[in-house]
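Regression test case RT-17, inverse folding.

Input:
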């Protein structure tokens, strides 16, 4: 080890010690410039990182202000906080989501949906009037219902299909088509003329 008798040796020992300390992780000597308050030295490489709950801003670490009804994300990107379930971000705050009558907060926690049997119209849930021979349809679009097989929608009612002789209800269930080998002619199914 270093001898303390000679001046040159003492200077060399001091340089070795400083080089060792400067290369150690967690050392303030490893920094380039001055480390701000609420920061720690990076584990690898040069520089520093702001502590949890702080964000870098012009070479300082500023506290992240978390509004009511929010929680810290502890992420190095974004605003540093998110609103709790049932609240939505508005400017720099979290406001409770207003859920209309006959609605519920969906799984995401930041929007609502109407109960079954209701349709979203603006910021309300309107009761779906299902006509005779119709059924509720899982859809967020109007009218929210569909006609049963063999019926066709005409405005707000379900009208029975008038299926002519030699025809059948099509795959969709809401129209008809001619049986083979019949052809459609003037709303009837007729045999083709043999040549």
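Golden output:
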């Amino acid at each position: 080890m270093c001898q303390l008798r000679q001046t040159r040796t003492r200077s060399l020992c001091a340089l070795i010690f400083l080089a060792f300390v400067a290369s150690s992780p967690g050392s303030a000597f490893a920094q380039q410039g001055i480390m701000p308050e609420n920061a720690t030295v990076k584990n690898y490489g040069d520089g520093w990182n702001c502590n949890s709950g702080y964000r870098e801003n012009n070479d300082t670490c500023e506290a992240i202000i978390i509004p009511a009804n929010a929680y810290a994300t502890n992420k190095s990107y974004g605003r540093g906080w998110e609103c709790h379930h049932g609240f939505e971000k508005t400017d720099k705050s979290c406001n409770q989501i207003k859920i209309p009558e006959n609605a519920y907060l969906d799984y995401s926690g930041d929007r609502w949906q109407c109960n079954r049997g209701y349709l979203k119209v603006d910021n309300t849930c309107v009761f779906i009037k299902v006509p005779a021979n119709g059924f509720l349809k899982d859809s967020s679009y109007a009218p929210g219902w569909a006609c049963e097989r063999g019926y066709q929608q005409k405005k707000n009612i379900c009208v029975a299909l008038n299926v002519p002789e030699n025809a059948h209800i099509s795959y969709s269930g809401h129209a008809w088509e001619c049986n083979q080998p019949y052809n459609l002619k003037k709303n009837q199914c007729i045999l083709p003329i043999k040549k």
